[in-house]
Amino acid sequence: MRVVFGAGVVKSLPNEIAHLGFERALVLCSPEQEETGRAVAATLGERTAGVLAEARMHVPMEVADRARDRAGELGADCCVAVGGGSAIGLGKAVALAHGLPVVAVPTTYAGSEMTPVWGLTEGGRKRTGRDPRVLPVSVLYDPELTLTLPVGMSVTSGMNAVAHAVEALYAPDATPIVSLMAEEGVRALAGALPDLVRTPDDIEARGRAQYGAWLCGACLGATTMSLHHKLCHSLGGTLNLPHAPTHTVVLPHALAYNQSGARHAVAALSRALGAAPDPARRLWDLAGELGAPRSLRELGMAETDIARIVDEVLANPYANPVGVTADGLTRLLRAAWAGEPPT
Ligand code: NAD
Fold first, then answer.
1. What is the CATH number of the domain that holds 95?
2. DSSP at 84
3. What is the pTM of this model?
4. Which atom of ligand 1 is nearest to the CA of 58?
5. Per-residue pLDDT tens over the stretch 74-133
6. Helix ranges (DSSP H) in 21-150
7. Which of 29, 62, 143, 145 is 20 to 30 A away from residue 212, measured at CA?
8. Of the residues 28, 33, 128, which should be mutated to test ligand 1's pocket, given the most ligand atoms within 8 Å of the CB?
9. What is the Cβ-side half-sphere exposure of residue 90, based on CA atoms within 13 angstroms?
């Protein structure tokens, strides 16, 4: 994978596309970012096949089908996905179907651009899988494109990235180098997010946040995620809770649940979070300081849904540093639902 990083690098997209030998790029973005998508497409001149501004959260199958058809009709030889995980996810869906390479221009901190993981939603169920064909061939990280990301979304998106690093640190397939990247990713984001909240147009802080997102996204791509990601997948898929805010609320609780079985992860997180003796509590405090949501209730979850999520999460066992029990999960979700500190 090629990576181009720095303020203003989106201007080098035409060179990048030419260097990769592509001639007809289909630009994908969400309807809210159509203007940005069209501006990026305009820079490509004759190498633009068209713009499809239909990306939506969790890649609904009908949108993926339309994007595949458009790519075929227009004779596209690559997709340029401009946006967050939803636009990049749509590019991955086209890559999965047609083998068209994806060039990613991320505008959030979600990290999808660094992973071979795809997701598709049909009939209310989200399927995910890994396929090397969906890993973008090139990523252009331009912090200038994140200046329009509202502060609230910047914070929750940054915490979403931190969650990838946290789980990479206690993953069953953790490795020393990926752990270094995870620790540095958490350090970068924990430092950049308060600066962003104070000064949203601080391009240097935006760059540090994107550097953290790159590190954390790479950790997500390199390791197997555990309880935290399973919980968020279930809360998002079953209850349609918003992706990044859900990660933000659940992370301190999932980490608190796992800390007793993840000594090395706790030590790394403690270092990354300014010698925090209890990283889970520090992340919960940080979310509060940054004005982020801290309860699932405020994201629209009903307390009566807790049992349903517990059943769903227990139905598919997976690796986790601490055994997952119905009682433990219920306690975790009740605290996260009510906005209580993690225990
Ligand atoms: P998103 O892509 O859904 O974006 C949220 C909203 O913010 C959209 O309306 C978008 O247009 C807008 N937006 C994005 N960047 C903006 C900017 N710079 N300025 C103004 N508005 C902007 O949100 P997300 O959190 O980046 O992605 C979530 C999706 O990505 C979920 O479906 C999640 O499952 C998926 N995801 C996948 C992976 C993976 O590895 N496959 C990793 C992380 C997330």
1. 3.40.50.1970
2. S
3. 0.97
4. 32
5. 999 999 999 999 999 999 999 999 899 999 999 999 999 999 999 999 887 888 999 999
6. 34-43, 61-74, 85-98
7. 29
8. 33
9. 34
For residue 302, give Cα distances in angstroms to 126, 227, 254, 312, 338.
21, 21, 19, 16, 10
96 belongs to a structural domain? yes
What ipTM does the predicted assembly reach? Answer: 0.99
Pocket test for ligand 1, best of 32, 63, 229 (most atoms within 8 A of CB): 32
Q: Contact at 8 Å (CB) between 85 and 4?
A: no
Assess whether 40 and 78 both reside in one domain. Answer: yes
Last residue of a domain, one of 95, 115, 146: 146
What's the token pair of residue 54?
A: 């239909």
Residue 322 and residue 174 share a domain: yes
Q: What are the pLDDT digits (tens) for 279-303?
A: 999 999 999 999 999 999 999 999 9
Helix (H/G/I), strand (E/B), else coil: 13: helix
Whether 107 maps to a domain, the answer reads yes
